[in-house]
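Appendix B, record 7
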Amino acid sequence: MPLDTTRLPRRLPATLALLPLLFATACAAAPRHRAPTPHAAPGPANLAALAEQVDGHIGQPRFAGADWGIEVVSLDTGSTLYAHQPQHLQQPASTAKLFTAALALSELGPDYRIPTQLLAADAPVHGRLDGPLILYGMGDPTLGIVTATQDWADQLATQLAARGVHRVHGDLIADDTYFASPAMGTGWEAIDLQSWFAVPSSALSVQENQLELDVAPGATAGAPARLEGTPAAAMALMPVVNQLITSAPRTRNDINLYRAPGTDTLYAFGNIAQRSPTQTFRLAVGEPSRQAGAELLEALTRHGIQLDGQLKTVHWPAENPARVGANVLAQVQSPPLIEILRDGLKRSQNLYLQNLLLASGARAQADALQSPTPPPGFITTESWGIKALRQLLDRIGIAPSASLIEDGAGLSRRDLATPEAMARLLAFLAAQPYADALREALPIAGVDGTLGGRMRNTPAANNVHAKTGSMAYVHCLAGYVTSAAGERLAFAIMLDNYDAPAGAPSASQDVDAVAVMLAGLRERSH
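Structure tokens (predicted):
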């Protein structure tokens, strides 16, 4: 089950752990203590009992240095059933993805499909296309992953061949300038940028901008370790300095991976014991658009299309004059936006939500520039997205001081929101035509996504539909639940500045305990 986290967990078994200066190591770690899941107690009989139970839970001495924020509202009556510091700003972590989901659904719509196109200035003549062929991305994060786009490169090459093209007399330009923004979100930390959960956001993303690196021992002690990466196109673009050696059997593994910020070269050093099982690490791809171009180039060759030029890339803030006036020769489309959201929310996939923020920003910018008085100056695509989000929240009635969101994924430590703002957002979403689809797109307790292993054998199982959010010392849950009395509730539960002491339940269990109380509530609000 993929981890729900906008950052790596603080203790890692055999996965990529980042230290200062993007230093990565994969030493064996002691398994984290997990307290047994308690049997579900009878649900609160009434609202007074609910308040007493929640107050007793969050008032335990071990939370003395922590910050709880909770808001529970009825979708049936509009009443507030419980609140604790509802207007207190807290870090939302990945529950911030709910804001991005609301924006994307409002700005683009649940049925919107993101295109990826092949462009050229001139039509082919006698099977020959003169001038550059442009691979133009518009933010689809699913290329190479889902059924609709898994063979995206072959789809484009097939369409090009169907036009009679068998030779391109020019370069192949992979163009990701649709997003006029840096590749990392505002507030993302440099220490994270090598890892799989903070991959670069690109208008031309492919294979979720990740590379899986398999590390295996050599045949004999003293031999270099074996390093193999998937996809091969991404591995070919990352120079590797392999100083990782095979040590004697049963010696302690010390696998270190390091890639300096802004560079492609990966250094591998340390040792891996002979006969150790292969260990797999997930790394961010440094230049996704170049990988996409390389994959398309291979597909063109498979379909008998010769390229006379070279593979080139264009990134913002550079411009691509060849794209001006170019025509669409081929196109693939993403799944509907609601399906991208479902995959992104279930797995808490940062790239998907950051790309959707940027796609929404690009749409908002295009609309603004078509107005009779277009705005002067330049702001990034991400800033356009945040501006559009602010306008949406104003319409909902969420004050600017209650929601300070800076990125689309919740990866920024500078993101802040109040439980009240989160609950109000959820209530707004529950009143939209796409409400049922969005509710099903959220992780379901005990069933799937990042809640698949949580709240089993409780009244919350197959009942709570909620977005999880966690990073170091931050644990949140926000979504929907139906009480035992049949009342539909929206809730936000936020626990900041807390590290579970030895022997205590995990922080996620403490957050879940409140959701279980809501699921068991036996009285309706009035």
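Remarks on this record: Confidence is low (pLDDT under 50) at residues 1-39. The chain has two domains: 1-32+113-335, 44-109+339-520.
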